[in-house]
Amino acid sequence: MIHETALVHPGAKLGEDVQVGPYSIVGEHVEIGDGTVLGAHAVITGHTRLGSGNRVYHHVSLGEVPQDKKYAGENTRLEIGDDNVIREFCTFNIGTMQDRGYTRLGDRNWVMAYVHMAHDTVVGNDVILANCTQLAGHVEIDDFAMLGGFTGVHQFCRVGAHAVTGVGSVVLADVPPFVTAMGNTAKPYGINSEGLKRRGFTAETISEIRRAYKLLYRSGLKLDEARAAIAERAQACAELELLLDFLSSTSQRSIIR
């Protein structure tokens, strides 16, 4: 299933039923799991591992060296899980020794065209990254987040689970779980209620999440005070523990306010 014009290094490890399209290049240290399909003109290089069932479209670059002047050729990695869709012209770089040493994309993610994942970025599972989303170095995107087209996320920022950003958002601080963020600079605009409904959250749970949002953003409480108030509500709503854990481990960027 390797096109005659493709270049696959003898040292590369390909699983069963892997397809490599015309003019694609697979480097020496690449591993590709069963059933993964590479389109035309894809370049997979570096110490890169793709799991099974991925669909990689045309002109994608995976595993190239990071755009970081401190990088000095170390054997850092790019790790991609299973059942991801990676559309045209996406670029994912390997990590750096200054941080994790790897860049990682989890499972079942939908990554649209022209998305960039810089070094040491970690994206969880079931995430949607719309067209031209740009993730700077050291970014974290948690499970079920959805980033609108042309979203830019500043280095070291984190976007929490089930959060959503509007088109053209510029994220310069952490976005807590469940929150809808929009604008340049991104600000909170309520919770992602529609997304929560689609994922089976009950009306009662969504109401509790909305109350927690109001405590965090509309009560006038300081962050520590809001966190304490949300902790009381979490005794009756386990899903709020996700928000509490996030607020307890927020990055150096703090949260959007």
User: What is the CATH H-level superfamily of the largest domain?
Assistant: Hexapeptide repeat proteins
As for the number of domains, it is 2
The count of strands amounts to: 27
- Helical fraction equals 10-25%
Radius of gyration: 20 Å
How much β-strand is present in the residues?
A: 25-35%
Low-pLDDT stretches are none
In CATH terms, what is the architecture of the largest domain? 3 Solenoid
Instruction: Using the coordinates above, name the CATH class of the largest domain.
Output: Mainly Beta
What CATH calls the topology of the largest domain is UDP N-Acetylglucosamine Acyltransferase, domain 1
Widest sheet: strand order?
3-6-9-12-15-18-21-24-26-27
Shape: elongated
Structural class: alpha/beta
Mind describing the biggest β-sheet?
10 strands, mixed
Mean pLDDT over all positions: 97
Tally of contiguous helical segments: 4
Distance between the termini: 51 Å
